[in-house]
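Problem: given the chain below (681 residues), write out its structure.
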Amino acid sequence: MFKKILVANRGEIACRVIKTARKMGITTVAIYSDADSNALHVKMADEAVHIGPPPASESYIVIDKVMDAIRKTGAEAVHPGYGFLSENPKFAEALEAEGVAFVGPPKGAIEAMGDKITSKKIAAEAGVSTVPGHMGLIETAEDAIRISGEIGYPVMLKASAGGGGKGMRIAWTENEVAEGFQASKNEAASSFGDDRMFIEKFVTQPRHIEIQVLCDAHGNGIYLGERECSIQRRNQKVIEEAPSPFLDEETRKAMGEQSVALAKAVGYTSAGTVEFIVDGERNFYFLEMNTRLQVEHPVTELITGVDLVEQMIRVAAGEKLSISQDDVTLGGWAMESRLYAEDPYRNFLPSIGRLTRYRPPEEVAAGPLAESGKWQGDAPRGETAVRNDTGVFEGGEISMYYDPMIAKLCSWGRTRTEAIEGMRIALDSFELEGIGHNLPFLSAVMDHPKFVSGDITTAFIAEEYPDGFGGVTLSEDALRQIAASCAAMHRVAEIRRTRVSGRMDNHERHVGEDWVVSLQGQSFAVRIAADKGGSTVTFDDGVSHRVASDWTPGDQLALIDLDGQSLVLKVGKISGGFRIRNRGAELKVHVRTPRQAELALLMPEKLPPDTSRMLLCPMPGLVVKMNVEEGDEVQEGQALCTIEAMKMENILRAERKSVVAKINAGPGDSLSVDDVIMEFE
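Solution.
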């Protein structure tokens, strides 16, 4: 077995690999750019080597710099994680020439399967059903338009070397092909150093289901079930689960056996993923093979008890697989929510800055992975498990140079219903401040009836949130539960305040019993009867809730026992009440005396400033292109400028017909959120 492994990556995946290597007794080496000098993966590794400036193109994906780090530290093997150099055959070749083991597949398999065009040709030759498309490379936007017309709209523009949604766009018209083709090429060149593009038919109403395979160098190959990855936004997976709520055992077996056969056909070793589109009749079509560890691998680990990183390392060291297909069983259900630094209220645009508060829910182990001893924990099988793969820490910075993922929050339960409920509680318990984040949106999906039923496709987000995410409107029952909890919490805060001010002699008689709780446009009159065990909160219609909690003023997380059920509230203080986050809803909750409530009704509402004649920068980023000049007349939907952030190009468009009066920024300018890019007459 190896004594020292270099992890050629950063963030949560680097931390994930380091954890397993440490468990196996292997020394680890981290690499880092200027932007990551204080990153978590650097702190966790036994050694760390600086490799250059912040842009990945000048550090993490420069093969010569990584090879220098290997030579300096004497690493015997390299785990590439995902992204960066993980599917770069030149990197695998360089390692082979240096006599260093690559914790991944052979160069030939990377070339055959890592290139999406080549992989589709091989799959077709092997008799695998593939999605209709143009397998040749497309050089110009004109060629892209012609080919798209031949295939039939809608089409998918995809980077040949792409992954993670980068360099990928859906086009429904010729204009969208013309605009999207160059933007996709630019993203592909920036992210992968390869701007080759191809086009395939976009299948409507599909499910995205992938098979995890694991092969050794001795001819053994197995599949470890499937993952449902249909909850996607901008072709980027957001929520994954294993197994799929849609597949039956017959389809699972067919997909799995086909995936293993394809892997063996190209001499594949290590962990890999074969991705399929599955239609409503459970017909499946090969999309691509990812010759690396997937972001969503934890859900497979949670239901199989197999540590995929450990298996990759053992295979790279020449060992045979210790498990056969007959040994693979799927136990329970697992969910993964990708926590991103992006603002769901601004159409999920990237957010950067310092994590002023970062308190993930406590990890609890249960299920097959806990039983196998691969994941440390003390909870017995049958309880809900919580796992958080992360690469950040409180006080750390989210940089504009890399992918905006903060963490992968996972839950496990005996059933899908239990796994979803475990995820709901974990999301509510996640304390994160300082940047925009998608926690509210993830919570909203977990409560969405279509998701809960398993009736999902890759169009779920586009169909259910066509106008973007505007927050969650809670039911009246949910509002009453929060109102009762906040009334009890306010009473505790009032007792604390009166004691501190000296207005009472350790008695609670000066704290009133009657209150009015206002939230989400509704007001509830309540009466509180307190005792040593908690409070009984009674509404004016006679309905009561029993509230018990050890919450004290200043705590930012309230764990409430409400009528015997758990309720988790993220708590912030505002004048006269609380700012509450629960189940995707962000609420201002005011708790007032009846007289205060009467007076509050007389207060005028503060209106937001009028910015309708301005184009504001929706995210921190770099101006790449300015499409208009001062004095130009623009039409609704016309492209105004392009902003690059987190390796993605974002085209800002006119909301209505107008004339450009003033332009305040130009190509190369760095902008902050709400900077005025241009003004209109």
